[in-house]
Amino acid sequence: MAKGWSLDALAARCFLSPSNLSRIETGHRRIALDQLVPIARALGTTLDQLVEHAEDEDVVIRPLPDHSRGRTTWLLSGERTPHGVTVAKMRITPERPARPERLRVHPGYEWFTVLSGTVRLQLGERTIMVETGQAAEFSTMIPHSIDPHEGSVEILTIFDREGERAHMHAAEGAEPPEPAP
Length: 181
Description:
Blueprint: H1 7-14, H2 18-26, H3 33-43, H4 47-51, E1 66-68, E2 71-75, E3 86-92, E4 109-116, E5 118-123, E6 126-131, E7 135-139, E8 144-148, E9 153-159, H5 161-171
Antiparallel strand pairs: 1-2, 2-3, 3-9, 4-7, 4-9, 5-6, 5-8
């Protein structure tokens, strides 16, 4: 504690149980307004000072690159992204082997825009070239793959919750499961 108080001492001053205060402090419980006021009073501060971020961490996302098999991914969405979507920038290089025989199918929906290069989007039997400045959206229940065409490609992509599980966790090293026959 910044004032040198124990958790029990602060809990007594703001009329909350130590276990409740501990869960709030560790992020295991959301804090309610009726809890913020007594905590601010006990600490001798204002509500604004209590909840403000010292940095811009609540606004600025500083993504770290995740490299995997010819693909680099930067997560651009924070934990509070509405509607359970994940936003990511991806660079896909020719080192990532194109495998048309291994098209993926999973629940969900995907959208991407090409920032640079040309994407070869395989949707079932169709091959669609998506160029810089163009976008594509499709149901991920259609067998699909996104690969670079003649050089590297950079895309900005949005996955729903199911698409994030299939694509982002695959980027962490595990191949997504093959579709059922």
